[in-house]
Specification:
Number of strands: 12
Helix content: 25-40%
Distance between the termini: 28 Å
Strand content: 15-25%
Length: 371
Amino acid sequence: MSSAARPPRRRALTALAALPLLALALGACGYGSQDDSAARPAGGTGNAKKLSADTVRIGYFPNITHATPLVGEQEGLIQKELGGTKLRSTTFNAGPSEIEALNAGSIDIGWIGPSPAINGYVKSKGKSLRIVSGSASGGVKLVVDPKKISSLDDVKGKRIATPQKGNTQDVAFLNWIAGKGWKVDPQSGKGDVSVVRTDNKVTPDAFKSGSVDGAWVPEPTASKLVSEGGKVLLDEASLWPDGKFVITNVIVSQKFLDEHPDVVEAVLRGSVKTNAWIKAEPEKAKGSANAALKKLSGKELPAEILDPAWKSIEVLDDPLAASLDAEADHAVKAGLLEKPDLAGIYDLTVLNKVLKAEGRPAVDAAKLGKQ
């Protein structure tokens, strides 16, 4: 990893308790900004032996950046590891609602983006959750109207959408703007660039109508914009060492982890094996993810959106802890947050046990591990 490849340090997500206005905004994972949860029936493997809990409740987004749980549940790979313990899933379209569900005990384990994970950890003073695994990297792009913007310098003076104030992509865009030497007020989004906070479900229509000139957004919204005539001006992966940065990780209720480590281990085994299958059979896995999306939303993604979106996302088990720390720093640098204490946000003990059993090396918590 060369120093030239390393992006400028992003400052951090923070004492959200002292910033109530940002508590909701920072919770957003990046795709959707409304609660749209839908619980599905629990599964179970016949008369197989139950673990220490009868049921484990997981949460995730109906979004291909959450390919691991989509495919893992669709193919029964997570349930297989749970044996007689039943898997029950709920989907969300916003980070805040998933964190609320975890805190309320409605779910035990969740796939979620870095901003809401940090938010939940900081607000609870480190008592509510732990990040226990990675899940996906990449899948975030700056897509623009090529008739209005032909170069990165042309972004100045334009209207660019992000999913939500203080969410992961909003922070990344503000950090990039600062790196260009431009000024934007982080609260209003006004300045040398107009940052327009817009729900990802609305962004394609705003782009088509010309009310925004581009968007810094996750997949599949980015590929949807391309299908509407947009051009990828920048892939966020190009700003990161080795092109890797966390977009989705796995969190668990601290209480559930303490009481049911065997269940957490089984879910992580299922996650690791799902990721291995996705990498080994990418076309089959893509079809499986799309089938899961159809089951959840009633419609599949068309090939012109699904294919490029799928290629831009990498599933992985490493939580890329250093990138989460940098993303937190970026939020501080942008003026959205104060410096948080993230020591202990990771507990990779169970994941590393699973990886060792698979003959794979341990992953690192970048000095933010269990204390």
